[in-house]
């Protein structure tokens, strides 16, 4: 999230409020609450830890507001009523967020120090090109990015233009990143890199890719694509 350092925290709070209103939760984990709607038997409530922010009566009132009269609810952590509502709605998105404060050249060094010490915050100046290299390193680390290089048959890998993907992607995700129709034509792939036991290794769509792996995809029609 790009913010203006000269506006202190007002800009940030407004953006966070807007995102909260549409169901986007920044830098939060999904509440550890087991919830399942049943066909009968009423509401079964239990917890594995002491609850200080909610009780069984409030849980029943919230469920009744959503026309739910038969359900199983298990709290595995001390959650709030709002977090229970998030679980019931089941349409919330939990995303990591890095707050990037620009225009630090227009504020005092004390204010820069205060902002930089906040969690998930980076200070930069695009105008004076201050701290941009550090921002790039933090983005790469926090977003868990990897580089995957493609290879044409009979040619060396193209290291000048790799695919930037999230860590934990499979060959199927690589196919979609190259072209949306490639997965349907996929036959197998040859992969070089740390994700394989030997190179090249013939793999399927479920193979997990590592950083700086090289891939050559072969289609069902016996044609090659990179």
TrEMBL record:
The lineage of its organism: Eukaryota, Metazoa, Ecdysozoa, Arthropoda, Hexapoda. It comes from the Eukaryota. GO terms for molecular function: GTP binding; GTPase activity. Residues 144-219 form the TGS domain. Keywords: GTP-binding, Nucleotide-binding. It holds the Pfam family TGS. Residues 1-144 form the OBG-type G domain. This is Uncharacterized protein. The keyword GTP-binding applies. InterPro entries: Beta-grasp_dom_sf, DRG, G_OBG, GTP-binding_2, P-loop_NTPase, TGS, TGS-like.
